[in-house]
Every structure is written in structure tokens, then in C-alpha cells.
Design brief:
heterodimer, A: 279 residues, 13 helices, disordered N terminus, B: 334 residues, Rossmann fold, Alpha-Beta Plaits, 6-stranded mixed sheet, 4-stranded antiparallel sheet, 12 helices, 14 strands, 40% helix, globular, disordered C terminus, binds adenosine-5'-diphosphate, binds magnesium ion, cell membrane (chain B), transport (chain B)
Chain lengths: 279, 334
């Protein structure tokens, strides 16, 4: 260990306000992405899983479930996209639980940084990775026969909706991760309830084929609204034979659902963060 | 000027029957440029005290000022003047050493260039340059501790909090870390250091505060505390019971204190003021008198002795549990 005294560094500068919030958020986002890319789990999550889902669903289910007069493979794609966006819960919950578990949140809180930086940075980095995942899935989709039949603006609207949904689900993930505070528990607590929710929707099967009670649940499932809206915006067949309001007005319904999830879970997550941090 | 002032600190966890008063009316004053050792067994309230003083925990009672800023009303100013190295090294294990230090620098609001430069200097100073571009999860426990400590020195903080900086380290890394801490002191920093080892507080601290169950039970310099528990002792186990009384004479000759005799174990204990010199003299004298011995040692008072003396109970079992916990936490962090 050398004992030579080095150049006096500047004392910490006190910046404040929105600039500091943005800057600290970007630094935390950078470290999430930079560090995350070194973890095999993240690489699989971002690059292998999306391709696997698209190809598996397209070739395994795509031909097996006949729906009259519909290109089922095309029908499936929006469902797979939405399901994968919902999985944003996983990286957010595991990431924050991990930071808590390892004492990093305490460390960050002892620094003169913006208080909101840790959660905001997580949201930004995970939104970036969800965007990359979405692009990969769409390219794969195009390769296996998915088509956009509705022009550029609605398509961009569809992409925007997918990201908005991912954003909403990130807050759910943040809430779960900060509540459990242990990465292993967070990994399962983040996803276990998501599978039934996704399967009880129009993501893979038209609800009209389900028993009445299940059918009602599926029609009012937020996932169904998101998926139906995406199908509309991408110009894919959506086979809606339902009078339920969300199925008749999927785009507004999807936006309302996303807003609702954010309004409920963002404050909950922030509250959990403050509570967890002052323990 | 005092760098740390705490008056009547109180922290209670939980409520009702299960409430734990983790810190129960602690007063501390640490003059600028000095080192305070906060000594206590596991669960004494050391970490809780540090977390309150570093603005991580709201105070339930009392007030505290660090580097001239009130912890409760101006926490951001406190954070800009302190460095904290917590009980378990908190670095991002997926980032390299260099990246970790750059990130901490940026979060101290340095510019990217300043942060880079500072990271270089600290890597050099902490002998981490060779490992700088490896993810820190590949580091040994000692390297991780050094990186964590480097992260708390980014802005040459006026006040440095080190929570059990050497717990779980091998002896060589421990000595290395002591050097770094001494260097900070000579650079003018004020340090509050918590530890479970009297030896460590003795080596580093100007003043020691002993806490147990959230309360201060003693304070003073290391020498004052040791004087309280009786300083060094020579312990001899005599081979032949017949030789006991002659051995007592030998021991008594070199000491002002009273020789304690345990006939059953043939163990004699006598206080000594002359340390290892006294020990050598005793060995010579015993040899001269042809007194055969099974064992002889110079015993320094340990945290155990301090505790036994001050509280009447051993911290021993608790310490074992703590060490296990530390190992488990290290393992869990992998
Ligand atoms: N977040 C917490 N919730 C409940 N009890 C706590 C919490 N943190 C510490 N304690 C309790 O407070 C006491 C003091 O703990 P701590 O300050 O960690 O001691 P030390 O650092 O000296 O080992 C212990 O009894 C511990 O169990
Ligand atoms: Mg502790």
C-alpha cells in the first residue's frame, strides 16, 4: 500500500434541483446497465428469452390452434410482446432487492445525491432494456411471419403503448422488490402471479373459447386491453366477440389501465423505499 | 472545534412489548482531527449510532451535529462532508473497482473528469491498480474492504465513519487497513471507528467509548480503560504442586500486585508493570530455582476483561454469533 499523499480533490460540490436529479438518475441507470450486462441472467433475459418465446409460440402453438379465418401466428405476436413487457417486473424487483440486500441502498443514501436517483435510475435502465427486448422480438416476429398492416403512426403508437405498459409494470416490480428485500424471493414473488394473469387473458387464446366466468375475467384483465389495443394499432386480427367495454374500446382502456397501475404502484414503491431505507 | 456532537441519542426499534431501545441516551463529543473508538459487543448499538450520525436513520430522541451541520435539519450538508464505510463492504460487485470509484465520485457530484482522476489516485493508494478492471465480485474480502474504504474517501471527507472496518479480515489485511486509517488521521480527518476489538481501538483511537445495550458504560483513553481492568498479567502453570509456594515468591518479587494462586490447576497470576521484560525475568528466576513449569504467558487485558470488569458478563458468546453472521452475510453477498 503506498502512503504518498495525492492531489487534494475538490470538496463535494453541492448542486441541487432538477439537474442533479437527472444526472444522478443517469449515473445509477448507467451502473445498472453496465453491471447488468456482465450477469449471464440478464443476457439470457434480454437476448435469448425474447427470441425463444417468439419462435416457440409461433411454431409450437402457431400451427396447432386453428382459429377460423385468422392468421393465428399474427394473432399471437401482440400477446407475446405484452407478456414479455409484463416481465419487466422481474429485473426491477430483483435489482432493487439485491441492492437492499447488499447494503448498497444505505451506501447511496449516505452520499450527497438526489434521493429519487436510485429508483428513477432503476426505472430508466429497465425501460431501456425492455425497449431492446421489444425490438428483438419484433424483428423475430417479422422473420416468422408477423406483419404490421396499419401504417407508421399507429405502429409507433403500439410501440409506445408497449413501453408505457412496461413502465407501469416496473413500478409493480419496484414495489415487490423493495417489499421482500431479498433477490431470491423477489425473483419468484415477481413472476409467480404473472403467469396466471397473462394466461387468463386474450394474449394466446380468444376469450370466446373460455367458460363464461373465466371469459368475463379475461375481458376485464388489463393484459387483454393492452393486447387488444396493440393488435388494433399493428393492424392484426383481434377476433373480438364481446360487449365488454374494454374490448370495444381497447386503446383508451389500455391507457386507463396503465395510468391506474402507475398511480397505485409508483407511490407505493416510493413509500416502501423510504420505509426500507429508514430501518 | 468539535467534528461530532451528539446529545442524548435515542433509537427504538419496534413498538409495544417487543420494542428494543437500540441506542439509549448516548452522548458523544469528538474533537476535530481525533479518532474516537466506539467499542462494544454485537448488538451494543454501534451500527445504529453510526447510522443516526450519518443521516441514514431518523433520531427518536436527542440531537446530533456532524461537521457543523445538524443531522436532522440539514442531512444533505452532512452527507457532503462525510465518508461512510458500513459494516459490510457495500460496493457494486458487477462493476470493476475503477467503475465503482468513478460512480461514487459522480454521486459526490464531481465532474466525470474529476471522478476519473480521483478514482485513479485511490486505486493507486489502496494497491488496487492491478485489479482495477476486474469486476469487484472477483475480489478477496480484504480487497473489497479496501475498495469500500476508498469509496468513502472520494472527497477527503472531514469526518469519516468506519463501522467495524476490519471484522472478518485476515491479520495482514487488518494491519494494512490500520495503516490507511492512520494516514487519514495524519491528513487531518476526524474518524469515528466502531470495533469489537480492544486491541484495535487501542491501536487507532485517541479516546474510547465503551457501549453496551445502547448505553455508554465507560470512556477514556485505552490506557485509562486498561488501568481499570488491571493492565498486563503474567500467568504461570507450575508442574509440581510442591513447588507452588517457591514459585509464588519468585512472582511476587517482580510485582507490586497480589499474586493469585489456584492450587487446583497450579495456576499463578500476577499483575506486571514491565510487560515482556518482566516475563523474561520471571522465566530466568524460575529456571534458576529449578522450578519446572507447564505453561507461561503474558496476558493483555482484552475486550472480555473490560466487559467482565464493567458489566459482569462476557461478550464472548455474542461475538461468536456475530462472526458467524458476518460470514453468512459475506456468503450471501456472493
Ligand atoms: N432495523 C432494525 N430493526 C429492529 N431491530 C434492530 C434494527 N437494527 C438494529 N436492531 C437492534 O438494535 C440493537 C443494536 O444493534 P446494532 O446497532 O446493529 O448493534 P452493533 O452494531 O453494536 O452490533 C440490536 O439488539 C439489534 O437487534
Ligand atoms: Mg454493527
Amino acid at each position: 500500500m503506498t502512503t504518498t499523499e495525492t492531489v487534494q480533490p475538490p470538496a463535494a460540490v453541492k448542486t441541487s434541483g432538477i439537474n442533479q436529479v437527472l444526472q444522478d438518475t443517469m449515473i445509477i441507470a448507467w451502473r445498472n446497465i453496465r453491471g447488468g450486462m456482465r450477469v449471464p441472467d440478464t443476457q439470457i433475459y434480454m437476448f435469448i428469452q425474447p427470441i425463444m418465446f417468439v419462435v416457440l409460440f409461433a411454431y409450437v402453438f402457431g400451427g396447432a390452434i386453428p382459429v377460423d379465418g385468422v392468421n393465428y401466428r399474427e394473432y399471437l405476436m401482440a400477446g407475446i410482446f405484452a407478456q414479455t413487457m409484463a416481465f419487466a417486473v422481474a429485473p426491477a424487483s430483483v435489482g432493487l432487492a439485491d441492492d437492499m440486500h447488499k447494503g448498497l441502498i444505505d451506501r447511496f443514501r449516505s452520499l450527497p445525491m438526489a434521493r429519487s436517483g436510485v429508483i428513477a435510475g432503476r426505472v430508466v435502465s429497465d425501460l431501456c432494456s425492455q425497449f431492446i427486448v421489444l425490438v428483438i422480438m419484433m424483428v423475430c416476429g417479422l422473420i416468422v411471419g408477423w406483419r404490421v398492416n396499419n401504417g407508421v403512426l399507429p405502429f409507433l403508437g403500439g410501440v409506445g403503448l408497449m413501453l408505457l405498459f412496461a413502465f407501469a409494470m416496473l413500478w409493480v416490480g419496484a414495489f415487490i422488490g423493495l417489499s421482500v428485500g431479498n433477490p431470491q424471493v423477489a425473483a419468484s414473488a415477481g413472476l409467480i402471479w404473472l403467469f396466471p394473469v397473462v394466461f387468463l387473458s386474450n394474449a394466446f387464446v380468444p376469450p370466446s373459447t373460455m367458460p363464461t366466468i373465466v371469459q368475463n375475467m379475461a375481458e376485464w384483465n388489463p393484459i387483454s386491453a393492452i393486447v387488444a389495443a396493440a393488435r388494433d394499432l399493428f393492424g392484426n386480427e383481434s377476433i373480438i366477440v364481446s360487449d365488454a367495454w374494454p374490448m370495444q374500446h381497447p386503446v383508451p382502456a389500455a391507457l386507463i389501465w396503465c395510468a391506474l397501475i402507475i398511480v397505485i404502484f409508483a407511490p407505493l414503491a416510493v413509500r416502501k423505499y423510504k420505509a426500507a431505507a429508514s430501518k | 472545534m468539535n467534528a461530532i456532537i451528539a446529545e442524548g441519542l435515542v433509537k427504538t426499534f419496534g413498538s409495544g412489548e417487543k420494542a428494543v431501545r437500540a441506542v439509549d441516551g448516548v452522548d458523544l463529543v469528538v474533537p476535530e482531527g481525533t479518532v474516537l473508538g466506539l467499542l462494544g459487543p454485537n448488538g451494543a448499538g454501534k451500527t445504529t449510532t453510526v447510522r443516526m450520525l450519518t443521516s441514514l436513520l431518523p433520531l427518536d430522541g436527542g440531537r446530533a451535529e456532524v461537521a457543523g451541520h445538524d443531522v436532522a435539519t440539514d442531512p444533505q450538508a452532512v452527507r457532503a462532508s462525510i465518508g461512510l464505510s458500513g459494516q459490510y463492504a457495500a460496493v457494486d460487485e458487477n462493476l470493476t473497482g475503477r467503475e465503482n470509484l468513478w460512480m461514487f465520485g459522480r454521486l459526490y457530484q464531481l465532474s466525470s473528469r474529476q471522478a476519473k482522476k480521483r478514482a485513479e489516485e485511490l486505486l493507486e493508494q489502496f494497491a488496487l491498480t492491478d485489479a482495477a478492471d476486474r469486476p469487484s465480485k472477483t475480489y478477496s474480502g480484504g480487497m473489497r474492504r479496501r475498495l469500500d474504504l476508498a469509496g468513502s474517501l472520494i472527497v477527503h471527507p472531514k469526518v469519516l465513519f468506519l463501522d467495524e472496518p476490519t471484522t472478518g479480515l485476515d491479520p495482514a489485511s487488518r494491519l494494512d487497513l490500520w495503516d490507511v486509517i492512520r494516514e487519514r488521521v495524519s491528513g487531518g480527518a476526524t474518524i469515528m471507528l466502531t470495533t469489537q476489538y480492544l486491541e484495535e481501538a487501542d491501536a487507532l483511537a485517541d479516546r474510547i467509548v465503551v457501549i453496551d445495550q445502547g448505553r455508554i458504560i465507560a470512556e477514556g483513553t485505552a490506557d485509562e480503560l486498561k488501568a481499570k481492568v488491571g493492565g498486563e498479567r503474567i500467568e504461570v502453570v507450575v508442574h509440581d504442586p510442591e513447588a507452588l509456594s517457591r514459585a509464588v515468591d519468585v512472582l511476587q518479587r517482580g510485582s507490586d500486585g497480589q499474586c493469585v494462586v489456584d492450587e487446583h490447576t497450579r495456576r499463578l497470576t500476577v499483575p506486571t508493570a514491565t510487560g515482556s521484560k518482566g516475563l523474561i525475568q520471571v522465566i530466568r528466576d524460575l529456571d534458576e530455582q529449578n522450578i519446572e513449569i507447564d505453561d507461561i504467558a503474558l496476558r493483555r487485558p482484552t475486550l472480555d476483561d473490560v466487559f467482565l470488569e464493567l458489566t459482569g458478563h462476557h461478550p464472548e458468546e455474542e461475538k461468536a454469533a456475530e462472526d458467524e453472521q458476518a460470514v453468512a452475510a459475506e456468503g450471501g453477498a456472493k
